[in-house]
UniProtKB/TrEMBL annotation:
Belongs to the MscS (TC 1.A.23) family. This is Mechanosensitive ion channel family protein. Residues 126-192 form the Mechanosensitive ion channel MscS domain. One of its GO terms (molecular function) is mechanosensitive monoatomic ion channel activity. It is found in: Cell membrane. It comes from the Bacteria. Signal peptide: none annotated. Its main location: membrane. Residues 200-281 form the Mechanosensitive ion channel MscS C-terminal domain. The chain crosses the membrane at residues 39-60, 80-100, 106-124. Keywords: Cell membrane, Membrane, Transmembrane, Transmembrane helix. It is a multi-pass membrane protein. One of its GO terms (cellular component) is plasma membrane.
Length: 297
């Protein structure tokens, strides 16, 4: 990598200053005037390149913004992408102008930019990781605004997707900011991605109760609820012989926005119908049997 010898540059400047101060006044001004005339074409060329370059960069940035608006990319990315394009183009323009003015300084300038870029990237590596994660989230779109998701154990509705953070609001009205670097690596469960969901419930009845009757009661509650889908047909079957109860599984499809409404409706309605039909819902219990052995209790 090219290095910049500041001591040598300072000594050269000092020599020029000493030479100018030692010259007679007329000679000094003639010398400066000839140097200016030698430098003027490069200065004029640099100014023309700078003016044309600024106009070109502005046009490219404006054109990029219009193209991005027509694309399917998330609007959050538009300003970021345009800013990156403009910054890179202005840096390239600056290097070109400096190269025209002082060709020998171009290599040192590029090396300086490289060192500066490395130092900045090391200083803000965590922020860059979150920025990369935000771009990944916006490009892959595992969720959208308003979706109900679970990320790293946090459940809530997506309120905002920024480049560094994803913001969600929980059911109890807490706002959680999750770094996008973590979001990009996390397992994401999107509960509202599909228009329908399957509701799974399990009802317990006693071993002495008629399980066929219990199944008919559950099917009746499903049939009377307009939120429960008829296609696919709901499934109501015995699922387990539990320690203290017979378990009856109920699986029914429902529109995603109605998921929790149907969940609560079925729990309440089945309980009412079980009570009316004499079907018990047992609690966990343990039977203790005592046996008399050898004349002792």
């Amino acid at each position: 990598m090219e290095t910049i010898d500041t001591s040598s540059a300072a000594s050269e400047i000092q020599e020029v200053v000493n030479a100018l101060t030692s010259m007679p006044s007329d000679t000094r001004w003639n010398y400066l005037w000839h140097k200016f005339l030698d430098f003027a074409p490069r200065l004029l060329t640099a100014l023309i390149i700078l003016a044309a370059g600024i106009l070109l960069v502005r046009w490219i940035c404006s054109f990029s913004r219009k193209m991005l608006k027509r694309s399917k990319l998330d609007p959050t990315l538009h300003n970021f992408i345009v800013s990156i394009i403009c910054a890179v183009l202005y840096i390239v323009l600056g290097i070109i102008v400096v190269t025209v003015l002082a060709p020998s300084a171009a290599g040192s300038l590029i090396a300086l930019f490289g060192v500066f870029g490395l130092a900045v990237s090391l200083a803000v590596k965590d922020s860059l990781a979150n920025l990369a994660g935000g771009m990944s989230v916006l490009f892959t779109k595992p969720f959208a605004l308003g979706d109900y998701v679970r990320i790293n154990g946090n459940e809530g509705t997506i309120q905002e997707i920024r480049l560094n953070y994803t913001i969600l609001k929980t059911f109890d009205n807490k706002v959680v900011h999750i770094p996008n670097g973590d979001v990009a690596k996390a397992e994401i469960v999107n509960f509202t991605y599909e228009p329908t969901r399957r509701l799974d419930l399990v009802f317990s009845i006693g071993y002495g109760d008629d399980f066929e009757k219990a199944k008919r009661i559950i099917r009746g509650a499903l049939g009377d609820n307009p939120l429960a889908h008829r296609d696919p047909e709901p499934v109501v079957r015995m699922s387990e012989h539990g320690d203290s109860a017979i378990k009856i599984a109920c699986r029914v499809w429902v529109d995603t926005p109605d998921y929790w409404t149907l969940n609560f409706d079925l729990l309440e309605e089945v309980k009412r119908r079980f009570d009316a039909e004499g079907i018990s819902i047992p609690y966990n219990q343990m039977d203790v049997h005592l046996h008399r052995t050898g004349g002792q209790n």
